[in-house]
Amino acid sequence: MKHYLVTGGTGFIGSSLTKSLIKQGHRVRILDNDSRGEIARLKDIEGKFEFIKGDIRDKEVVEKACQKIDCIIHLAYINGTEYFYTKPELILEVGVKGIINILDGSIKHKVKNFILVSSSEVYQTPNIIPTPETVAMVIPDPFNSRYSYGAGKIISEILAINYGRKFFNKVMIVRPHNVYGPNMRFEHVIPQLTLRIKKIIGDKKGKGVIRLPIQGSGKETRAYMYIDDFTDGLLTVLDKGKHLEIYNIGTMQEITISQLAEEIGACFNVKIKIVPGKLTKGSTLRRCPDITKLKKLGFKQKTSLKDGLQKTIEWYNAFAHLQFKND
Ligand SMILES: NC(=O)c1ccc[n+]([C@@H]2O[C@H](COP(=O)([O-])OP(=O)(O)OC[C@H]3O[C@@H](n4cnc5c(N)ncnc54)[C@H](O)[C@@H]3O)[C@@H](O)[C@H]2O)c1
Question: How far is residue 18's CA from residue 231's CA, in Å, rounded to a whole number?
């Protein structure tokens, strides 16, 4: 049994990870300011974990959270594409102060194992697809606020690696690629497409075939991984990953946004006619990870896109009325 600190633990990924760690018999302490997290996500394991409500930018709180911990999994960050454009300075502040505080706290309390949850955004528009971990991290334009998110992750990776060499037994970096599932909040592609299709059906503006305006041509691609598979991937890295290694976690099933909208439409028994729109500057046209390294550790994906979408859409159908407090 190990004692884990999960920063960002009331978030979408952090809450799923916490549940799995508890199930494996570990102890978990969460540090989260609940700005985007929801303690209610952990209702079914209430009383089985420790929760410190605090800000990753607060050095004292972070130091306290690092006491008597074997391994830190650092997820606290500001996610959600719209915030890359509207709150770039906050994204960088949480990213940079957060990583410095958590590394300093680890050193002070002799935490020897550290996992940084980075992002596919460090690759921006990679020229190799599927993209292996060896592709360079880039910031194509310092004046485009979108890259605040990727920049904060790049800085975090470089700090984790260089502190890792000196002060830790094991430091590993994972790069998630488009994780989805129930209760992932609303400002992501799958929830937004789901709710818009649901609304058009509700407004009776479409029966049988629905006209769906989107950003971009619809030919842009992503590779979507269901949350349970992502958590399994992260646990595989925790268990078998090596010191100072980077692992993509995602699926290699690349899909266009049009195909994704059609799959979501099929869950509502409607056909979709895409109406192309303008793409935001800096958006990536194709994204799909090469997960050979993760597979070599023994990872196997279990959930198909069809099954994962079905579960996700059921949740959004039932809880579409919910609005999170800070939106
Ligand atoms: N979901 C994805 O597809 C995806 C893809 C790439 C990378 N990631 C990374 O994975 C991690 C988790 O993402 P998620 O999808 O669960 O997002 P999320 O927003 O649900 O989780 C992030 C958590 O961090 C917390 N947080 C934010 N600012 C904080 C602060 N100042 N102090 C303390 N806590 C703070 C939030 O309250 C939230 O609970 C993030 O680092 C994110 O960048 C996620």
Answer: 10
CA of 65 to the centre of ligand 1 (A): 18
Q: Whose CA is nearest to atom 41 of ligand 1?
A: 75
Residue labelled with tokens 């049009």: 258
- CB distance 156 to ligand 1 below 6 Å: no
Any atom of ligand 1 within 6 Å of the Cβ of 11? yes
Q: Where are the domains positioned within the chain? A: 3-179+223-249, 185-222+255-284+304-319
Domain 185-222+255-284+304-319 has CATH 3.30.1330.20: no
- Topology, domain 3-179+223-249: Rossmann fold (3.40.50)
**Does the beta carbon of 10 lie inside 6 Å of ligand 1?**
yes
**Lookup result for tokens 């020229």:** 127
Q: Does residue 8 have its Cβ closer than 6 Å to ligand 1?
A: yes
Kindly give the pairing relationship between strand 3-7 and strand 71-74: parallel
Q: Taking CA 294 as the corner, what is the angle to CA 289 and CA 123, rounded to the nearest 5 degrees? A: 30
Extract the tokens encoding 78: 């500001």
81 C-beta closer than 6 A to ligand 1: no
Per-residue pLDDT of the chain (327 residues; tens, 9 = 90+): 999 999 999 999 999 999 999 999 999 999 999 999 999 999 999 999 999 999 999 999 999 999 999 999 999 999 988 899 999 999 999 999 999 999 999 999 999 999 999 999 999 999 999 999 999 999 999 999 999 999 999 999 999 999 999 999 999 999 999 999 999 988 889 999 999 999 888 877 656 888 999 999 999 999 999 999 999 999 999 999 999 999 999 999 999 999 999 999 999 999 999 999 998 888 889 999 999 999 999 999 999 999 999 999 999 988 877 655 444
Q: Is 257 helix (H, G, I), strand (E, B) or coil?
A: helix
Centre of ligand 1 from the C-alpha of residue 327, in Å: 15
Which candidate, 172, 297, 293, places its Cα nearest to that of 244?
A: 172
Q: Look up residue 262 and give its two tokens.
A: 């059609």
CA 311 → CA 254, 283, 300, 305, distances in Å?
20, 28, 20, 10
